[in-house]
Design a protein that fits this description.
The structure holds two protein chains of two kinds.
Chain A: H1 27-37, H2 51-70, H3 79-91, H4 116-131, H5 137-140, H6 146-155, H7 161-177, H8 182-200, H9 206-218, H10 226-236, H11 249-262, H12 267-276, H13 283-299, H14 302-320, H15 325-332, H16 338-346, H17 348-365, H18 369-385, H19 387-429
Helix pairs in contact in A: 1-2, 1-3, 2-4, 3-4, 4-7, 6-8, 7-9, 9-11, 11-13, 12-14, 13-15, 14-15, 14-17, 15-18, 17-18, 17-19, 18-19
Chain B: H1 23-31, H2 37-45, H3 47-69, H4 75-85, H5 102-108, H6 114-128, H7 133-148, H8 153-160, H9 163-166, H10 172-186, H11 191-207, H12 210-225, H13 230-246, H14 249-264, H15 269-277, H16 279-303, H17 308-316, H18 318-323, H19 330-346, H20 351-361, H21 364-385, H22 390-398, H23 400-407, H24 410-424, H25 429-462, H26 468-485, H27 487-500, H28 507-540, H29 546-559, H30 565-579, H31 585-601, H32 642-659, H33 671-677
Helix pairs in contact in B: 2-4, 3-5, 4-6, 5-6, 7-8, 7-10, 8-11, 11-12, 11-13, 12-13, 12-14, 13-14, 13-15, 13-16, 14-16, 15-16, 15-17, 16-17, 16-19, 17-20, 19-21, 20-21, 20-22, 21-23, 21-24, 22-24, 22-25, 24-25, 25-26, 26-27, 26-28, 27-28, 28-29, 29-31, 30-31
Classes of the chains: A mainly alpha, B mainly alpha.
Chain lengths: 435, 678
């Protein structure tokens, strides 16, 4: 694109240290002119081209930032379309393909946005605009519309964390000031997440969007609308399945806990959802799930706990006996949590039988001495809690194991019989054995 | 599941004929409810057996309703279920009852997990063909409508894949409705649904009447191609190919081209990439005239696109594009309209672009003929042969055969040699590996003389490379060369050099001799093997390193079939018997293996073979890692070092252990691979 548009001589705007240059009556017109000038885009991939003009645009943007911060009465109605146009021209662009073939945010360095010297100021200016005391959403909503928001959301895929950080603030302000766009924004974030989970597994701004959602959920009115519950169950829970969970898990867990604090009756679907998507091979993710579960348990109501304790502790029993010591350790740390301990104690007659065989077995078999020590403490705690049941379980441990083994053997025989049966049927069909 | 009996009701459940052998079926059904996913999965996979045992009626009235209700299971189980149901028509009583399968599949087509949904749609498509036209309208079409108007996006995306299978056999009125439903999905407000619709647009267009294509599909196509999301727009490019195939030249010009032109200049590189990627298909679909007027200029732009991704995709298509141009005026057109852009790409800043070009550019020589190739293409080839990026050079070398046919390889050989030598010594072993793989091809094209003079020494140098994979590839390479140049050549140039390595102080090189003999013996034939190779192998049986000795045993087993019985009897047998008494477990093991193989050949001979003597002492294999690496050291086992080696070697070795061939016996590791990697 040609930088030919910047033909106006550098003139100072009011509000800047050189405010005396221009009489205040001419400042609004100059403001519009400067906005128009800043619509010109420069090629930053070519580091040598238009150096002077780039520098001029940078200083102009700086002036704009100062002007909008300090001046009073600068946001007349006719400035709105020009501001939005300037911002759109600069920030809306198709993000370039990632430099690394399969960009892995955990391994690779992000590609930083080359035009950041300008882009940063444009974002800065836009945020000051949105936050200005004179800012009137009723006028701005003509220009900051659904299409604008959609393009803004697409930018969250930027690899540059600095840009995503600015976008987060921008979107948050827009959500706060434009009531009419709220439902739309939520729906589009939904779509981005669903696409991320079910289609591409690739979107750089998931953590930032979740952070915004965390504060949105915080503000939900009670009782929760069906739409919000659906969002929790059909979007937030499936987000746990994504490979790159570690990049946004903290924000995700925060959202989940926010929901549960709002409406405890959601505990059961949430925990069942986590059980359904429990990682099968990735120990690192398992540790994250256990961490999130503890956060949930911290706020769980005893009445809700009773509803999910069985599936929950079956899973915890599996984790405790994981050969990966970090998983086992993370699960065993639950017994250091006083609130969880009190819940376990109240329901020890249900939980102890579920946990016992796993605990008993690893206390003898686990390769890691630290785990064995932790298990020993847990067993001791159970013994103190409910000694009669503990003794019973210890006594029947062996016979239970034998029963399990027997069942396993029966199953094996069943499959063998089944094969025979199929074989016979096949022979019959082929006319070898008469029916 | 109340109706379908569990094991409690025993044999009565299974068909009611009192056949006790059907008891397992009842258990199987019970297992469908087991807590353990794996067990449910096993059981689901036997669903056809269950259905067969229940009979068609009970399958319809009991099993299918039960399955429809259980659809809250893990995705893995659901996937297996969706797949099974696709082949279930026979089990529910044939085409007349195929519609019974629709309810469970309908639920499966609405679940979140894409894999499950796709499989359900696939099965539904399969089953739709088995419906009679009446049943199709009575059962299948209503299902499609329900899915298409579902609340959640999953059911609507699934519906997109079902329109094209029911449309052709529907009545005119229903056809109208189906088109209406499809139209509304194309403008759904969820992008996921629009994407699904856009990706099925071409398929749907193919089953429509031409009038409807023009009046309905084209507007949908135009809309999708200007969607606000680039992920939708790029799918429209794919549909473009199918739609253009259906239309006349004039219609293409009027209805499709405006959109296609726009796509080629889309502001999103993803859309432009798609145009570049589908270029050959587009070219065929729009025909030669439009290609010349529209596509060539578009292609030129794609070749100089600002995104490297797009340029690389376009560069990949250069050869196909040129091939598919009309013969008349082709040469001029390529020379004037394409070649100038290609010249630019040779010095592109992005290596993927250059490498994409290098993988096809040689193909142009057949199209342009000898003179143009020498004058215009050769300089480009030579420039790419000197490119800083090894992939570019490799891609040129790997396509030499195309040029060879046109101008002969001599034109290139002067530049080729430095390029090959440089790749042969590249620091990355994968690059070295790649060039080795082209050696037989190069040898064939360059001829024996050139090869002996320039390349032979390279091939020998690879044999002592420090990476095992290279040494291995180098031995295979020798075998291929012998196949090409014949045994006489082998005897004169290769075999002596290989055999000299048997005396190398490094035991890895001594083993390479054995590996080479394994590879070469067959190609060289009995005489060379017996006279030249066998004595060396036998001599090496006295090597002080156990790894060499057990490889001697393996080699003897390998070359056994080539030798005559006298040699086997007189020379091989005694050596193997001696190795069979070796103090080392593994040497013993492989010697035994070889003895039994040789014995099979010499059936009349009385070799004592005791299978029970397979070495199995646990831990014995570990000690081999302590074996002295250099010459002159004792072969005794140096126990105190175990702990030191455990940390390093042991870890590396563990994964290998899983690759072990079951036939090798339980305890013996293929150590040769491991040690030589270090």
């Amino acid at each position: 694109m040609s930088p030919g548009g910047l033909q106006l001589p550098p003139v100072s705007l009011g509000g800047s240290p050189r405010s005396t240059d221009v009489p205040s009556s001419e400042q609004p017109e100059l403001f519009l002119k400067k906005l128009q000038q800043c619509c010109v885009i420069f090629d930053f991939m070519d580091t040598l081209s238009d150096l002077k003009m780039k520098e001029y645009k940078r200083s102009t943007l700086n002036e704009l930032v100062d002007y909008i911060t300090i001046s009073r009465g600068c946001l007349t109605e006719q400035t709105y379309p020009e501001v939005v146009r300037m911002v759109s021209c600069n920030i809306f662009r198709t993000l370039p393909p990632s430099d690394s073939n399969e960009f892995d945010p955990e391994e690779d360095e992000p590609t930083l946005e080359a035009s950041w010297p300008h882009l940063q100021l444009v974002y800065e200016f836009f945020i000051r605009f949105l936050e200005s005391q004179e800012f009137q959403p009723s006028i701005a909503k003509k220009y900051i519309d659904q299409k604008f928001v959609l393009q803004l959301l697409e930018l969250f895929d930027s690899e540059d964390p600095r840009e995503r950080d600015y976008l987060k603030t921008v979107l948050h302000r827009i959500y706060g000031k434009f009531l009419g766009l709220r439902a739309f924004i939520r729906k589009q974030i939904n779509n981005i997440f669903l696409r991320f989970v079910y289609e591409t597994e690739h979107f750089n701004g998931v953590a930032e969007l979740l952070e915004i959602l965390g504060s949105i959920i915080n503000g939900f009115a009670l009782p929760l609308k069906a739409e919000h519950k659906q969002f929790l169950v059909k979007v937030l829970i499936p987000l746990h399945t994504v490979r790159s969970l570690s990049l946004f898990h903290a924000q995700l867990a925060y959202c989940i806990v926010q929901f549960l604090e709002k409406d405890p009756s959601l505990t059961e679907p949430v925990i069942r959802g986590l059980m359904k998507f429990w990682p099968k091979t990735c120990s690192q993710k398992e540790v994250m799930f256990l961490g999130e579960l503890e956060e949930i348990l911290d706020v769980i109501e005893p009445s809700q706990f009773v509803k999910i304790q069985e599936p929950l502790f079956k899973q915890i029993a599996k984790c405790v006996s994981s050969p990966h010591f970090q998983v086992a350790e993370r699960a065993l740390y639950y017994w250091n949590n006083e609130y969880i301990m009190s819940l376990i104690e109240e329901n020890s007659n249900v939980i102890l039988p579920i946990m016992f065989s796993s605990l008993y077995r690893i206390s003898k078999e686990h390769w890691n001495p630290a785990i064995v020590a932790l298990v020993y403490n847990v067993l001791k705690a159970f013994m103190e809690m409910n000694s009669t049941m503990f003794d019973e379980l210890t006594a029947t441990y062996k016979s239970d194991r034998q029963r399990e083994k027997k069942k396993e053997k029966e199953r094996e025989e069943l499959w063998k019989k089944l094969e025979d049966l199929e074989l016979k049927r096949g022979l019959r069909r082929d006319g070898i054995i008469p029916t | 599941m109340a109706g379908v009996a569990g094991p409690a009701t025993g044999s009565g459940a299974a068909g009611g004929d009192g056949d006790d052998s059907l008891y397992p079926i009842a258990v199987l059904i019970d297992e469908l409810r087991n807590e353990d996913v794996q067990l449910r999965l096993n059981s689901i996979k036997k669903l056809s057996t269950i259905a067969l045992a229940l009979g068609v009626e009970r399958t319809r009235t009991e099993l299918l309703p039960f399955l429809t209700d259980t659809i809250y299971d893990e995705d893995e189980v659901l996937l297996a279920l969706a797949e099974q149901l696709g082949n279930f028509t026979g089990l529910v009583g044939g085409p007349d009852f195929a519609h019974c399968l629709l309810p469970p599949l309908e639920s499966l087509a609405t679940v979140e997990e894409t894999v499950v949904r796709d499989k359900a749609v696939e099965s539904l498509r399969q089953i739709s063909q088995e419906h009679t036209p009446v049943a199709l309208e009575a059962h299948f079409v209503p299902l499609v409508k329900r899915l298409a108007s579902g609340d959640w996006f999953t059911s609507r995306t699934s519906a997109c894949g079902l329109f094209s299978v029911c449309y052709p056999r529907a009545s005119i009125a229903v056809k109208g409705e189906i088109r209406q439903y499809f139209r509304s999905l194309c403008s759904d407000d969820t992008p996921m649904v629009r994407r699904a619709a856009a990706s099925k647009l071409g398929e749907f267009a193919k089953v429509l009447e031409l009038d409807s294509v023009k009046s309905e599909i084209v507007p949908l196509f135009t809309n999708l191609a200007s969607d606000e999301q680039d992920s939708v727009r790029l799918l429209a490019v794919e549909a473009c190919v199918s739609i253009a195939q259906l239309l006349s030249q004039d219609d293409i010009e009027a209805l499709v081209m405006p959109t296609l032109r726009q796509a080629a200049e889309d502001k999103s590189w993803r859309v432009r990439y798609m145009v570049a990627d589908k270029f050959s298909e587009l070219q065929k679909a729009v025909g030669p005239k439009i290609t010349l007027n529209d596509l060539i200029p578009a292609f030129q732009n794609l070749l100089k696109d600002c995104e490297a991704e797009v340029r690389a995709a376009a560069a990949h298509k250069v050869k196909e594009l040129c091939e598919n141009l009309p013969m008349e005026g082709r040469e001029t057109m390529i020379m004037n309209q394409i070649l100038p852009y290609i010249k630019e790409l040779v010095s592109d800043t992005n290596q993927h672009v250059k490498s994409a070009l290098a993988s096809v550019i040689m193909g142009l020589s057949t199209i342009l003929g000898k003179e143009n190739t020498i004058e215009h293409l050769l300089p480009l080839f030579l420039a790419q042969l000197k490119d800083e990026c090894p992939e570019v050079r490799l891609n040129i070398i790997s396509n030499l055969d195309c040029v060879n046919e046109v101008i002969g390889i001599r034109q290139l050989s002067q530049s080729l040699l430095p390029a090959i030598v440089e790749l042969a010594e590249d620091a990355k072993w994968r690059v070295r590996l790649a060039i080795i793989e082209y050696m037989p091809l190069l040898a064939g094209q360059l001829g024996v003389e050139f090869f002996d003079e320039k390349l032979n020494s390279l091939c020998m140098a690879w044999l002592v490379d420090h990476v095992y994979a290279i040494r291995e590839a180098a031995t295979n390479n020798l075998m291929k060369l012998v196949q090409k140049f014949g045994t006489e050549w082998a005897q004169n140039t290769i075999v002596p050099k290989v055999l000299v390595m048997a005396n190398d102080p490094n035991y890895l090189h001594r083993m390479t001799t054995l590996f080479c003999i394994n590879a070469l013996s067959e190609a060289c034939g009995q005489e060379i093997t017996t006279k030249q190779m066998l004595p060396i192998v036998l001599k090496m049986a006295g090597d002080q390193v156990a790894n060499v000795r057990f490889n001697v045993a393996k080699s003897l087993q390998k070359i056994g079939p080539i030798l005559d019985t006298d040699a086997l009897q007189e020379e091989v047998k005694p050596v193997l018997q001696k190795l069979g008494q070796d103090e080392d477990m593994d040497v013993k093991y492989f010697a035994q293996e070889a003895i039994s193989a040789v014995a099979q050949r010499l059936r009349k001979l009385d070799f004592p073979v005791k299978d029970s003597e397979e070495p199995s002492a646990p831990g014995a294999d570990k000690n081999h890692f302590l074996r002295p690496r250099g010459p002159g050291e004792d072969t005794g086992k140096v126990l105190p070092l175990i702990s030191r080696h455990k940390e390093t070697e042991w870890l590396e070795w563990l994964p290998r252990r899983q690759q072990r061939q079951p036939s090798l016996g339980v305890q013996v590791q293929p150590r040769d691979q491991h040690i030589s990697c270090t």
